[in-house]
Amino acid sequence: MKFLEVENLTISFNNKVVVNKVSFNVAAGERLGVIGESGSGKTLIALAIIGLLPEAATVTGSVRLAGEDLLALNDQQMSAYRGNQVAMLFQEPLTALNPIMRVGKQIAQPLRNHNNFSIEAGIARAVELCTAVGMPDPEHIVRAYPHQLSGGQRQRIGLAIAIACGPKLLIVDEPTTALDVTVQKEVLQTINDLVRQQGSSLIFISHDLPVVSTMAEDIAVLRNGELVEHANFSALFNNPQHEYSKKLVDLARASEKDFSYFTKGSTS
């Protein structure tokens, strides 16, 4: 069953097309990896889905979530979906988090907005969510400000906010770019575990094929705003069809990273 249907999504700025007629589907509980170099349009597609594109963007096509065309909704209508039915974990949590609000209140915010939690109930749930995302001493963490946390901790806080309302679709955008390899693997495993537990659909965005291999069964390859290949991971890795896909696979094979370190026991 198709849960998310993206059809002919085109995004432009000042008549310059940056995403060109991209189409893909994500079934309920399915995981899609979106891979491509910087500037390929990966994040813009995610922002279109969640309704956070800049006002200067011109968008055509459709983005249907459980049959509802999200592009046809105004911001007030979209806010009922954002953080509730669909949520996003951003690349740089320090810029996504409010620097002058304790993280516990930030985790509680979507619960208060969508589930009518009191502030006390929201903070209590925030403690539980900090535990769920692997944060030590969650009672202390919820009283911290973002700048008092490490990069890995901030990313876990972002994840706690994203999963707070149990969204049916979670979009994760380059979540481990600034993290060392050990913390990177821990964060990826936490995301994997929580998506599996909640039964959510997942769109995982990255420029890193070994990392994507841990998170998704199907891979969409973007280049210059166009979808150049869409295949399951095994087919893409063993028999890429597009020249750019072949380049990505060759780079992954030649990487200093131990590919098996990322691919062991990924999504199964």
Automatic annotation (TrEMBL):
Compartments in which it is found: Cell membrane
Task: Classify the protein's membrane topology as the record does.
Answer: Peripheral membrane protein
Q: Which Gene3D superfamilies match?
A: P-loop containing nucleotide triphosphate hydrolases
The answer to keyword 4Fe-4S applying to this record is no
Q: Which GO terms describe its molecular function?
A: ATP binding; ATP hydrolysis activity
- What sequence ranges are listed for the domain ABC transporter? 4-249
Query: What are its GO cellular component terms?
Result: plasma membrane
Broad class of where this protein is predominantly found: membrane
* Record carries keyword Zinc: no
Q: Which Pfam families does this entry report, sorted A to Z?
A: ABC_tran (PF00005)
Q: Which keywords describe this protein according to UniProt?
A: ATP-binding, Cell membrane, Membrane, Nucleotide-binding, Transport
PANTHER family to which the protein is assigned, alphabetical = DIPEPTIDE TRANSPORT ATP-BINDING PROTEIN DPPD, OLIGOPEPTIDE TRANSPORT ATP-BINDING PROTEIN APPD
- Its recorded name reads Unannotated protein
Species name: freshwater metagenome
* Taxonomic classification: unclassified sequences, metagenomes, ecological metagenomes
